[in-house]
Queue: 2 jobs
Job 1
Amino acid sequence: MSYHILANCSGCGACARICPTEAIAGEKKSLHVIDPRRCLECGACGKICPVAAVRDAFGIVCRRVKRSAWEKPRLDEKLCMSCGICIDACPANCLDWSEPVMKKEPHAYPLLREEKLCIGCGFCARECPVGAIAMTAPTTVSERGVDD
Amino acid sequence: MSGGYLGRILWVDLVAGACREEEVADEIYGQFLSGIGLAVRLLGDRIPPGADPLGPENVLAFVSGLLTGTGALFSGRWMVAGKSPLTGGWGDANCGGTLSPAIKRCGYDGIFFTGVSPRPVYLLVDDGRPELRDASHLWGKDALAAEEELIREAGGHARAAVIGPAGEKLSLIAGICNDRGRIAARSGLGAVMGAKRLKGLVLKGKRRIPVHHREEVQRLSRECNKWVQFQPPFVTGTMTAYVGTLMRLLPTQMAMDGLVYKLLLKKWGTVSMNQMSVEMGDAPIMNWKGTSADWGIGKSRTVNPDAFRVLERVKYHCYSCPLGCGGICATKGPFGEVHKPEYESVLALGGLCMNSDLESIITMNELLNRAGMDTISAGGTVAFAMECYEQGILSRDDLDGLDLRWGNSAAMIALIEKMIRREGVGDLLADGAKRAAEKIGRGAGACAIHAGGQELPMHDGRNDPGFNVHYSVEATPGRHTIGAQLYYEMFRLWKRIPSLPRPPLFYRKRRKYLADEEKAVMAAACSKFMNVANGAGLCMFGLFLGAERIPSFAWLNAAAGWRKSPEEYLAIGAAIQNRKQEFNRRQGIDARSLQVPDRVLGRPPQRRGANRGRTMDLEKMRSDYWEQFGWDREKGLPKDRP
């Protein structure tokens, strides 16, 4: 299963630029194509397409979401066990290890180092076995009660 | 295909420079799992009898585990396999870090190299697009520099495994490195890579790994993690030594619960055992002829676990590990930040050579990691040379002027540098103690402590006879990561397989040395279980939590969508063991020749120290073990093709 680009594609190339696996190819101003073998179903192409020309793996046409409203991972350090599964799962390479944090022992934790590269796919949260990562949109109210 | 594995492997023909993908049938995973099972199933028949391990007929496999990337904890081990140039039989080695998921993220369960390349090359897999590239500019570089350069050339965010100068120079004790100094060290497979002129592989993939029931795998992981995070305040570093002394003095032994070992591992890593092992008689001293009395607390104080803790800047976790037994240490020497040495390395370069200088141990460990040479075998070989020097078999002239008396750390560093460069006497010793003893003659063979050519690890079979059994019966002899009576107690397999014997909580120490059937059942269970673990990619330290706390079988069922019972999994482990033994038979290995030397068996018994008076009937224990697999009692040959 893979995402698919529909005939109303304007050929703007936004999807090809954001795709983390370079699965999308096409000439400027012409129909783009997704290589199903390389597609991770991360959904970035669907969220960024300005003309709603991307269909997801279930056949549903994706809705555009403003980039500033894309969800970002938020880590709960109390639950995190520094196993690195999320860092490995991230297709956009935007997670990295933090500087050591001294608790009982000095551990490093995952950190959203390249925030601009994050495509909000949620693979990190999905693969975290202990549920230490939550995907939250920047507009939602945080625990501290302020918009961030 | 249901989950856990990808059903596809990559064949790389180094002669033609061509890559080919191959689909692997579901039945093979069902019968042999992935990882080491997949490797032995595919290589067993493909490497012809009598193949030169350093020639084109040998095949080198890099395999990931079935559970890697599924959300199961402790599942970040990758394995390398092929015919060992060190032992001449089946060879495999195992390592952590982040390479194991990288293999699967590229879309493969394993990458298999055939032939010999006409020039130095490396393999780049960029998201399912494999390509061999020239590595002439990397040849000669140490493992850290080469890894850094390979990742840079791949455009960053990649994982790499490389050989250092030791592998390039075909040292038979060379390993394969990843993650800046972690090393799949045993079996000499770094030399196979060097002979193939394969400097490294660099993997850059982001494929999703299918999981049959991800939520169930994660639920099991959360349950397991509770045990891992349970960490009440425990003993101090200095107290570990006295705990070891107490264990030595008591006439009874307590069956070890791995949860206790977990507490030590989480706090200090494997170095927690440094002094405790010496005191209780688990650590061999002075090339296996010394005792705990020769390297007592006063001498081993320098390698106290706390001495490493103060250097530790941050804990190091392999992929998917909640424990983090590794560490990155800040050192004052020229190397800066280095991986914390492991117990095996500290003792092989410390007590085994009577060396109490911590700084030299860290230096040698890092030199060997960068060169891609096994610290266990290198330490064992240096200890061999030291004993030869002491006995006058090797003179100072033979040693290029080095004064190799016990504990001379400066001479040890100089010798290890020579071994890495294969210079002078280093060339003689770079292939391990057995080969060196054959070339030296003059009775040097009596000083070479090995099983089937592989130097023995830092666990004394006179303290736990189970180690001697596994050193002597495995297709990859001289390995400490398969079984022991202690491991059996910690695996607690009887919690999942009620037919397996449950050791009493307290027992007389002499019970360990009785060659009864129960010991054979325990040893066979360890071998089978570790084959399953190495098929799944699980770390042994996780398994020490005990079968009721680490759900290895349930993880496999949830990830792959199977409904196999623990007994069925052990049967898979037995099938893997059969294949390995069959491989050795085809390669002409006499299973009896893998027996450890008499000194290690306590023949004659030591007169003082923790293991005084200890000896064992290994021949009977070995035959009983062979019988557990249905092999011939006298020769250890599998009767029927598995």
Job 2
Amino acid sequence: MTVQIDGRLSDCPLVAVGCQRCGSDVLVRKGSWNQTSVQWNAEASARCPERGDTENVAAYSGRGVFMGCSALADSIADAVRHGDVSVVDGIS
Amino acid sequence: MTLQSNTDEIRQIEAATAPCRFARGWHCLGLTKDFGDGKPHSVNAFGKKLVVFRSGDGEINILDGYCRHMGGDLTQGEVKGNEIACPFHDWRWGGDGRCKRVPYSKRVPRLARTAKWTTLEQDGMLFVWNDPEGCPPPPEVTIPRIEGATSDEWTDWHWYTTTVNTNCREIVDNVVDMAHFFYIHGSLPTHFKNIFEGHVATQYMNSQGRPDLGDTEGSRMLGTTSVASYYGPSFMIDDLTYHYEEADHQTVLINCHYPIATNSFVLQYGIIVKKSDLLPEDLAVQTAVALGDFVKMGFEQDVAIWKNKARIDNPLLCEEDGPVYQLRRWYEQFYVDVADVAPDMVERFEHELDTTSPREEWMRVVETNLAGRSLAGTVR
């Protein structure tokens, strides 16, 4: 049972964005200004300091979901502004 | 253009048969109190019949339901001391899967061992570990504790069980399916984000109330905040807060299932509600029942869709749909051997949906409904 590929990725693929704080590269796709997919890898997860903080807090609170890294969000916003990441809305 | 090229352009639904293998992971079988009475209980799960019984030492044990002697049905047997006794010839099986005694024989035969499942009793629920490779549960995938479940400040579980005749992938798909919450469940998502990482898949959703749908409660529900995570393939904990004009009601909703066979599963859900000044004991219990019934209605709406829909491996998605393919890639980790779990099945993936365009459409629908209702009111 292999999983097929999301057709939306052929129209607008994921592109690499580096985090301005920890330097890790992740893959990003912008469906619109307010819609973002981020594919992390093991190295980025290990290096992200915000993620580490959430895990440390979660150890006391039971279950805590790390919603996302603010430095990475800023980096992605900058990448969009500089035209390094295109927005699907803007293509058609 | 030839006729041939026209048919080429038709999108075909693709669907491989559902896997005959059952997911590796912890599965909740229900409330412990329903299994712990010292009698054997029959559970159809993972394509087998299992016997669940609390032995004299207080442990809840799960064994294959059929006696290895002559195939007697252990679920019809009797708990004697720490063992389950077969109704056919009184062979005694311990929770470790070994035959402890054949009362009419001097010794137990060699290889007198049956299949047993690892269990976990936690927060009022009974869990079973399923692993086609037969390995014990790793500690890092254990089910997290639910503080409210054992606290006097919260109600007891209000619990529902139902059988659904389809493959359980359908219910897991709901994690990413934002639009169905409007069309099927009458809610109005305003914020929607998914995060998959390791064995956990999370849906973060805010929604606002539907002024066009019947408001029988008197006080108006403003909306909900929900953080719902699957811990493994089948057990979801939803920290779900209902916002009312006068206060917030904090609840924990469990949504869990276990497969009976490839194309059927037992769906269970339960709710606890936090008591407060506005929600003292009785009122909190009433709220749990009312909200539980509301959730029940929601699942019945899902079941009606699942009953009639086609299995589909290649959903055709628009930008405002959630990450169905990425969710299924995450889900796949539970259906392959541990050695074959690929990095992309467990690496963190985030998807935040832009709800602007859906909300514009849905507010139009709401306003049309309200206009229709007030018109009907005038006529009456």
